[in-house]
Amino acid sequence: MNKFLAMTNRAIRELGLLNASENIRYFAKVIRCYWPNRQFKSAHPEFKTPPRELAFDAYSAPDWDFYKTSGEGTAAFLATLIKQYQSSSPDGLKVLEWGCGPARVIRHLPGVLGAGTDVSGSDYNEKSITWCSRNIPGVTFLTNELNPPLKLSGNCFDVCYSISVFTHLSNDVCRAWVKEIYRVLKHGGIFITTTNGESKLEDLFPDEIEKYRSEGVVVRGNFEEGKKMYFACHSPKYLAENLFKCFEVLEHRSANFPFTAQDMWVLRK
Q1: Which sign, positive or negative, has the C-alpha torsion 11, 15, 19, 20?
Q2: Using CA atoms, how far apart are residues 226 and 242, in angstroms rounded to an integer?
Q3: How far apart are CA 269 and CA 267, in angstroms?
Q4: For a surface tag, which of 137, 162, 194, 231 has the fewest beta carbons within 10 Å of its beta carbon?
Q5: What is the dihedral of CA 106, 160, 86, 239, to 10 degrees?
Q6: What's residue 1's pLDDT?
Q7: Is the CATH code 3.40.50.150 the one for domain 3-268?
Q8: What are phi and psi of 177, to 5 degrees?
Q9: Does 40 score more than 70 pLDDT?
Q10: How far apart are CA 138 and CA 57, in angstroms?
């Protein structure tokens, strides 16, 4: 990141002006995407798209071509991982996306995982869950709070995944959710998740890098926790030895998750 831009962003955050800054960014992106989105809707009239503000809140881009293309690509990637690490249960796989947002990815999973798969999604944005419930067939949606628990029984999912959720939570909330995901997974179930790691060091300030090295966690607050401008970065060593220690680490790929360039973890209960 440009050093001047980074310093400006830090000053905006510390002054509590991020909400105003985000509103400006939102309207700028709506204008920029206006014509491409019209062309997309003309080419894909049957494809339901969420309200623009929900798309921006979830992934910073009310861009329908990206929403569709990245969602399809990520779902295909996840399906490959799931088939590699989790064989079908006698009753078919039960899959949960924790933090599904406006269904960018989860809407495509029933199609790529096949018949017999039971897919559920949860999110703490009630507007996203309302839109998803009304517009995305074949998936069960439920609302969760910023903190656990989920309104689900224990030991019920073969697979849980989350994309860029730990990246927007405080460390205490991360710890609580790791325990909750562990609770709802079946024995032998897998958890696929993403984090910010070593690849983000170039975006950190010297004092943040020092904290990252010494404590394993850097959090930028001064914004509503759970939103994308609330930023968290975790070292792989800290995650493996602390946050994820209740799981068996099957795979860790640095800056490798598609469309996010975040670290990917595959964990087994």
Answers
A1: negative
A2: 21
A3: 7
A4: 137
A5: 130
A6: 53
A7: yes
A8: -75, -35
A9: yes
A10: 24
Distance in angstroms (rounded) separating the CA atoms of residues 155 and 175 = 19
pLDDT one-digit tens code per residue, 107-153: 999 999 988 899 999 999 999 999 999 999 999 999 999 999 999 99
pTM, entire model: 0.94
Residue 10 near residue 205 (C-beta atoms within 8 A): yes
Helix, strand or coil, per DSSP, at residue 157: strand
Where do the domains of the chain lie? 3-268
In this prediction, residue 96 carries a pLDDT of: 98
Helix (H) or strand (E) holding 268: strand 263-268
Other Cβ atoms within 10 Å of 222 Cβ, number = 14
Contact 154, 124 (CB under 8 A): no
Give Rg (Cα) of the chain: 18
Burial class for 143, CB neighbours closer than 10 Å (0-12, 13-18, 19+): middle
User: Using alpha carbons only, what angle is made at residue 66 by residues 223 and 103, rounded to the nearest 5 degrees?
Assistant: 65
DSSP per-residue string spanning 56-113: HHHHS---HHHHHHHHHHHHHHHHHHHHHH-PPPTT--EEEEES-TTTTTGGGHHHHH
CA distance 126 to 132: 10
What's the CA gap between 153 and 34, in Å, rounded? Answer: 43
